[in-house]
Design brief:
Blueprint lengths: L6 H11 L4 H8 L3 H9 L19 H9 L28 H4 L2 H11 L5 H8 L3 H8 L22 H10 L1 H14 L8 H14 L8 H5 L5
Length: about 220
């Protein structure tokens, strides 16, 4: 079964312009045989305009001739002529529609809160903003600071999830260094060594009367006249 963009419209065209069997049309379009029969009878997809799969690059005339000559033959979808063309990598800052530009500070705030390891240069390139704007959001000097809320840039439509993951993954090593540095700076006084604790305990015992526990007579002797 081929992955056809408009299966019913394609089936309409094949029924009207070829002698292919219902089974062949159903198999190529990913439809049920009875559904294709209903299209031919006018009970399904009534008044639907057919779509030519040949002009759309989904089927060749040669494949149609093979199918018309052999009812058992199953049509094969034509290979896309653009599927193997490598997509050029985007250079420079991303262009963002005017309607989306007001969302950039929210995306910057999201990076600052959730991924401080991502550099300003990476953020700038990913969502198409300036380092000055990033600085203003970070130090809360942005003109709209009171309304800025951290929002995922993918949700805002400023980048794709794949692009975001790539940037975050590249910054993993930087995050590890930041966390290690924070751990060193945050080290405070820990537990005292066992020797110090034992010495302190012995000092307390000595001060309390050579380690002997006071009895009731000792405690109440101070109250006797």
């Amino acid at each position: 079964m081929a992955d056809i963009l408009m299966p019913k419209a394609t089936a309409v065209w094949l029924i009207d312009n070829t002698t292919l069997s219902f089974e062949q049309v159903a198999d190529f379009c990913g439809l049920h045989k009875l559904e294709v029969k209903g299209i031919a009878d006018g009970d399904v997809a009534e008044n639907m305009r057919g779509v030519d799969p040949i002009s759309g690059g989904e089927l060749t005339r040669e494949e149609i001739r093979k199918g018309e000559g052999n009812p058992e033959y199953r049509l094969k979808k034509a290979e896309s002529k653009i599927a193997h063309i490598p997509q050029p990598k985007r250079k420079g800052a991303r262009y963002t529609p005017v309607a989306r530009r007001q969302d950039k500070p929210d995306a910057i705030a999201w990076f600052i809160r959730n991924h401080p390891e991502v550099s300003d240069a990476q953020i700038s390139k990913l969502i198409g903003t300036t380092k000055a704007t990033i600085t203003n959001v970070r130090d809360k000097s942005h003109w709209n600071s009171q309304n800025i809320k951290p929002v995922d840039p993918v949700t805002l439509g400023l980048c794709t999830q794949i692009e975001l993951d790539e940037v975050v993954n590249k910054a993993v090593d930087r995050r590890k260094k930041m966390e290690a540095q924070a751990g060193i700076e945050g080290d405070g006084p820990g537990l005292r060594p066992a020797e110090d604790a034992d010495a302190a305990s012995q000092a307390v015992d000595t001060d309390s009367g050579n380690g002997e526990e006071p009895n009731a007579d000792d405690i109440f002797s101070n109250f006797k006249g």
